[in-house]
Amino acid sequence: MNLSSRKFIVGIIFLVIGLIFIIRLFNVQVLNEKYKLDSESNVVRKIVQYPARGLIYDRNGELLVYNEAAYDLMVIPKQVKEVDTNAFCKLLEIEKEEFREKFKKAKDYSRYKPSTFLKEISSISYANIQEQLFKYPGFYVQTRTLRKYPRNSAAHILGYIGEVNQSTIESKPYYRSGDYIGKSGLEYSYEELLRGTRGVERILVDVHNRKKGSYKGGAEDTMAVTGTILYTTLDIVLQEYGELLMKNKKGSIVAIEPKTGEILSLISAPNYDPNMLVGRAVKKNYPILSKDTLNPLFNRALMAKYPPGSIFKTVQAMIGLQAGVISENTSFACNKSYVGCHNHPSAGSVAASVKMSCNPYYYNVFRRILQQKRVKSIFKDSELGLAIWSKQVKKFGFGQRLETDLPSIKSGYVPDVPFYNKWYGEGRWAFSTIYSLSIGQGELGVIPLQMANLSATIANRGYYYVPHFVKTIDKVDGIPEKFKEKHSIDIDRKYIDIVIDGMYGVVYEPGGTARRARIHDSIVVCGKTGTAQNPHGEDHSVFIAFAPKDNPQIAIAVYVENAGGGGRWAAPIASLMMEKYLTDSIATRNKPKEKIIV
Amino acid sequence: MRNYKSIFANVDWVIIILYLLLVFIGWINIYAAVYNEEHHSIFDISQRYGKQLLWIVLALILAFIILLMESQFFTSFAFPIYGVVIFSLLAVLLFGVKINGATSWFQIGSFKIQPSEFAKFATVLALSKYLSILNINMKDIKTKLMAVLIIGLPAALILLQNDTGSTLVYAAFIFVLYREGLSGNILLFGILAILVFVLTLIFGPINIIIIASFSFILFYTIIKYNLKATVISLAVFSIFTYLFYSYDMKPNVIYYGIGGALLLLSIYLFVKKEMKDKSTHFLGVLIFVVTCFFIFSIDFTFNKVLKEHQRTRITVLLGEEDKLVEQIEKLKIERDAEGISKEDKQQLRDDIGAKKYSLRELRQGNGWNIKQSLIAIGSGGVTGKGFLEGTQTKFNFVPEQSTDFIFCTIGEEWGFMGTFVLVSIYIALFLRILFIAERQRSIFSRVYGYGVAAILFFHFLINIGMTIGLAPVIGIPLPFISYGGSSLWSFTILLFILVKLDSERLLVLR
Predict the structure, then answer these.
(1) What whole-number distance in Å separates Cα of residue A549 and Cα of residue B209?
(2) Where are the domains of chain B?
């Protein structure tokens, strides 16, 4: 055999190995993108700059919500080397089991991305931990802010923020694990304005995670943009006063500035201190609040569907007058055989019927509205009448969601033809079946905000703006268009004035049901009481009012559950609220009223 | 005495230019690898790049001295040089200092020297001298034993120093012996055995047995020129395989690819031999049986004979991190199961401990190194990140950047262009050396040339293979490029003796 030919074999082996190397290098360096990303993730650390969340003020510039520094311990599981668990747990003051659990959770989220390991470390332990932290690569401290509520008030309006959940992270790419998001109230509604924009600083680190400079000279860094300041329509002094008045009661108060639809205060009792749902305390307090049988988390002003009771007579009167089925001086005898009533002389006019809140009067008004003998059959006639009636009632904002700027508002309920057709069967119901509606009972469901809106609508003599909380937004021109749109109820002003005369009588004339609503001589209050029958217990006390009579500044609805007649509780509360708002104080002679209530 | 002109008259300038290129590439990349802002001059003697320049200058002086010497010096003093080196290898075991776990250094003041580096060229010289003795024939068993002894003695002494990497270099001599007449089958079987070993560890013995059977049946029936038998046995075998895999895993491209490759190799082997029917029977069956035995012994060797850290190196190479995690989980379940005796529980605990060690090693030790090395090279892309711009290098993600992992710096900062050029320079150098070896008139010079090629090639193979994840982590330098005086000088001496021998090849009488 010619051994010399073996030089080719050896040469070919050299060449083949060279070729294999080149193919492999081509693969690794040219085709494969993974290593480029890995190399970047090795040296580039993103430092997230959390913007301060936007502040919230009331209408007079009082601070309602601000931020306080808190320290979060973050972890990047991939970078964590062998940890002396004992010492580390001791440093953090947690149990070993907790450490394992938290670490696993972080690892499950991502091995490369940072996640929060321990939240809201106090400043004292922060100082301690910061000193020792160099021993634990992969862990670092991030400064964040917590919401603080200096006035301890308006919890239902302001809402609270909490950590984003997994489904939010998946649906909104802006959020990362451990981020905070508005969960309810204004924090929820104006989340995108309040949160600001996160900034990112990219730095280069070496193998020991030491900072070595900025990445690409900071060209890709972004600055954090502080959250926008929100000025609300709320009058925090009035709000606090309302909360005081509603102490130990169930119910709500809504006060609106009629000419703008701005909500001055919105109270749902019982309430809670907004600071209870801040940061780590949430875990402890939330179950307590949600298990409370009085349901303090439930915002009654927006979510509780009540029968409106007699305050609804104002609506019936206006519809009747507009429809021409009654006139200013129509009189009906107070015949208690149709529907119960209290003892009072028969009403000889619409205004008197409002003043005395005569039930049989409105029984007749409603009958006339429904049954106009348009057709022969009383069933068909009622049906036609109800269709027109419910359409008109909805114009007042009843039975529909008032698109205010708080989430989870209810629409209430105004029954219509299809409803009764389904309930009783078509042609099997007539006025006599549904006459409870005439006095605001029956299937009607109204939320307190809608009641206040009714009051504002009457005060405006026929229109309303959707009640809202936003007054101005920093750096943004104006408020959302929907709050500037005038909603007319299509009732002539002269008819509304008749009802207003009645509402004046409620407070000032003999036989009026709410003489306790008077403030003093210079401020004329118009109101209407209601006593909503409640099959589950004592009647609910209801009152709507506005003042002053001419050029009204405030319209209000007060609803106190299980408190009896409207004049007894709701009227004096409304009166005190209006006085507080209009005069900034309570006159001495009204102090006893306040004392009884509080 | 000859003058300067004649010294350089017949030297092979191709080799010298390739050599200077490599040395220069090494120097600037050492500069990049250990670049220090405070000492930014490449001539700063307090830094490795400054020192490397010093070593380069000294190496060039050495090269020049070698060219000045008579080439007869090396042929005459081959055995004495070998003897001195063997002696120094013994001495270093007694008087050497231990660095990184290996007792391979003499220290005189701050100056360190590694005799095992010089043992390389000494062994090449001795082997050349021995094989060039008249009437020596590789076919003789005595010659084979002598050659193995010459190679094995320094290898064994270096192994005693606990320097496994340098010991393995001596395996490269198989190329030299092959050229001088050692049966090609030994080379082929060696390569096949390594292939089967690795494949078995990756795919498990059962799969490899199936592939081996597949190859065997194909080969065997084709040799017998019996198409019918081939088709039938293939059909039976395919059905069997299909059933086997459909219950466990699906047969994939790799399965057929490897089967095909082994098949081609075995066909080549037997067609070449053109054996008679009877011996084909015998040899076919024998190879099959031996292969099966070998395949099963791999599992045993791997799990019982190899030490944990050696096992880890292989698992790192095979990238079996997930497998290890899975095994640990399985063992944990076993450990926590009820009704286990105390001894068994202890045994399981030990096993888990060992596996966890491997995993840690995988993630933080060698595995981490390979990963970072691949990230460095891979992130270089086509054109690289630019000189001194390698983040993996600059921020010390890659270990031993100036010595064993210098290739990472080149890959990261110069990209595929850089690595392609470097690999090409090496291949050109090796082929040039082969060319030079083959044009020698004396057996001594030819054997020496092959020895140089084999040693340089082996370093190239293992070092670059390691950084790109194709070879286990074995700490040996990249010739002419890695930082270090001893290795640079040793490779320079090795290469320039060849240049000297070559320049005087025409003076040698046939």
Answers:
(1) 101
(2) 4-180+378-507, 185-305, 318-364
